[in-house]
Amino acid sequence: MTRLAIIGTGYVGLTTGVCFAHLGHEVVCADTDADKVARLSRGEVPIVEHRLDELLVEGLHKGNLRFVVGGAAAVTDAEIVFLCVPTPQGEDGSADLSYVEAACAEIAKSLAYEAIVVNKSTVPVGSTRVVERVLRRPDVRVVSNPEFLREGSAVDDFLRPDRVVVGCEDRAAGIAVAALYDEIRPPVLITDPASAETIKYAANAFLATKLSFVNAIAAICEGVGADVDDVMVGIGYDKRIGSEYLRPGPGWGGSCFGKDSRALLNIATEAGYEFDLLAGVIAVNDEQFDRVTDKIRVAAGGSLGGKTVAVWGLTFKARTDDLRDSPAIAIINRLIAAGATVRAFDPTVNAAKPGLPGDLTISPDAIGAIVGADVLAVLTEWDDFRWIAPADVAAAMPGRSVVDGRNLLDRTAWQHAGFTLVGIGR
Ligand code: UGA
After folding, report:
1. Do residues 228 and 167 both lie within one domain?
2. Residue positions annotated with a catalytic role
3. How many domains does the chain have?
4. What's the 149 CA to ligand 1 centre distance in angstroms?
């Protein structure tokens, strides 16, 4: 059992805190938001994240998980402190380290003698040094331990990781951090700090590359009469390629891929390399938003002016309530700009949610969204949509065109109900 402090209770910090408590460590989580701290202390999880509520309540009951306001209060007894604060995109595309620096400045004087501070936030290569500089505590060792948690399955990803990466100059400090994961016996890779930080960016950029590649092949499939879903099964059997992250879609999104890809472009330029491949990956993704918008325009009869489009799905993927950098919103903005009226439904989103286009109407249910619609577009792969009977949609919707941006719906069933269904890459 190790005494840990976690600074920041976003999905990464909160998942890290509750999972380490689940593994038996003594955990204090800090946030600057007093209201959030009060809610977490009552066992209320502020985000949609599978199993997080169950593990939060478990930690509170066992008594080895606490929440406090402010980092200084959390770190006084901690042997290891995890920085899990946001690193948003700065104006020039690089990562903004101001939250990391502010957190370090706040905790510096309160850290226990010879504590270890761990960067879990995604930070530019070289940030271990930035943390050391701000802390100004020669007795404290700084280690990098990047996270590879997907929103929606963050708890499972934490407890069953493909690997744990630890970047350190002081090997003993790195081993102490790696030992926190002993109970789950993951493959552990200990590197220097710059390599650990680069692994994080390279992993996200590689996954984004894979997805843009899939969407580009999907465009070719449309031209040559192939079916991208079969093509991806066919290439995914090749172990060198792997079968994951091969689902075509309306473009990739979320708070990480775009931000981290752009940050890596900056890191590359500063390192003296123009990463044209990655710039192309981002450009292909932006084109994908345009391509899906165009499919909806064609489905609406060639023009979006005065047309009503129903959208199912707003979040950047299913099983989360996160709207940040959601492809659905990028596409809705394009539809509205082209003169369409858009009505949307998402299982986790209601009218009050910030981050939504002002002109968008939110429906409380899927059928409500399609009333009066010329076209239906499916933009997030919520399972719920799969089970809606096409006949119920036909009864409520005047239009007969569906654009399935996630290749989610059963083509045959929808065609039987009289719909023309256009997917991605088929
Ligand atoms: C991503 C990474 O997968 C995590 O490993 C990483 O830790 C995290 O970013 C982060 O840096 O914090 P996440 O943003 O939760 O996780 O999202 P993903 O599940 O990777 O999906 C990203 C986007 O790709 C979504 O828009 C999703 O719909 C899309 N996607 C994913 C596809 O279009 N097809 C696929 O086959 C898989």
Report:
1. no
2. 256
3. 2
4. 9
262 with 396, same domain? yes
Among 133, 167, 187, the domain-final residue is 187
Q: What are the structure tokens assigned to 47, written together?
A: 């985000």
Question: Contact at 8 Å (CB) between 184 and 160?
Answer: yes
Residue type, 297: R
d(CA 213, CA 203): 15
Beta carbon of 245 within 6 Å of any ligand 1 atom: yes
Sorted by sequence, the CB contacts under 8 Å of residue 123 that are 6+ apart come out as: 87, 95, 97, 100, 130, 144, 197
| pTM for this entry | 0.96
Atom number of ligand 1 nearest to Cα 122: 11
Tokens representing 253?
């999104």
135 and 210 inside one domain: no
Ligand 1 pocket, residue 150 CB under 6 Å: yes
Is there a single domain that holds both residue 180 and residue 204?
A: no
Compute, in angstroms, the gap from residue 413 CA to the centroid of ligand 1. Answer: 29
Nearest residue (by CA) to ligand 1, atom 24, is: 252
- The H or E element spanning position 312 is strand 308-312
CA of 268 to the centre of ligand 1 (A): 22
321 lines ligand 1 (CB under 6 A): no
Q: Structural domain of residue 216, as residue ranges?
A: 192-426
Answer with the one of 157, 187, 217 that is the final residue of a domain.
187
Mean pLDDT by 10 residues, the chain (426 residues): 97 97 98 97 94 98 98 97 92 87 97 97 89 96 97 97 98 98 97 97 98 98 98 98 98 96 95 98 98 98 98 97 96 98 95 83 96 97 97 97 98 97 97
Distance from Cα 300 to the centre of ligand 1, integer Å: 30
* Same domain membership, residue 382 and residue 272: yes
